[in-house]
Fold this protein.
Amino acid sequence: MERELSADDAQFRAEMREFFTTKIPQDIRDKVAVGAELTKDDFAQAHRIQHDHGLAVPGWPVEWGGKEWSDLQRYIWLDEMAAADVPAPLAFNANMIGPVIAAFGSQEMKERFLAPTASLDIWWCQGFSEPEAGSDLASLRTTAVRDGDEFLVNGQKTWTTLGQYADWIFALVRTDPAAAKPQQGISMLLIDMTSPGITVRPIQLIDGGYEVNEVFFDNVRVPADQLVGEENRGWDYAKFLLGNERVGVAPVGWIKRKLADAKARAATVASGSGTLLDDPLMAARIAELECDLMALELTVLRVAANSHGGKPDPASSILKLRGSQIQQDVLELMVDIAGPMSVVWSGEDDGAVPEWARHTAPVYLNYRKASIYGGSNEVQRGVIASAILGLKG
């Protein structure tokens, strides 16, 4: 299959490639390349450089900083960003709460929050999951009780990614416990993380890092004008948000880069009289992944073209499912290429094990989460069965 860009799109790709490879600091890109942990300043610097050049929130309405790009151009932007090992603009701001506020927030809310959200002057985190309400968000139990011109919030959120850095949290809360259906009694609130009664507790992950947190709300008072849209409509806004997340959750460009890295690393590891890349089984495994990735990329382009009005094509669930699977397969491949070197991923770096190999196991372990966040793979299979195949439960 031949895929050729128009002259305009080829020029657009060249512009994006030049920007990402010349404007983002090399030390940040080097960290991304090997899977090293990024600091808050790393994330912020990369985001703000893109914002300063009008590239942080291209999917937003134009009046709030968006671009009138085609779906293909937005895909090229993401692809070149990943190819250059550049951290994407903070997803909680750019892909999640920003589009929700732009679509459903009052004019006052838009004017208050959208500009600092785009520039990262406000760092957002997501308050959806709870200890017994992960993929089944409808069972959430954090409550918000109206008290005059405020809500009184009590409860707990968990797996709050980068919550330790956040200035604000957008949270799903139960405002009508007596609703006929649990989904009908949920609202979305914007909550200042410095509010009295909020406690953030880090969770150590299997890779040893502290990327996620628990967030506790103890009689937290939230002004009622920080309610997004209408009361008890939070489920609709959450579906809109997760739809945006799923369209971009198949990180084709990132997987391409990792697979190319895997091939390069395999060519440096001795095996028999040659290298791992010369091994027929390894070559077949890489070729199969390349074919899977090409099929995923074509599906991404088709789904993006069919997503309109905040209602993504149900096939976006295929992207979530296959994207996470292929992503994990490629990272497992990297661990296998590193072999025994992959177990040396903590302690003092004496130079005996290459840095790329030291990061293979932590990155692989960290990305086991990919089949859970944004709607677990089991949930996506259910969506595919009902919305695409028309199967009845």
Residues 280-305 form the longest helix (26 residues).
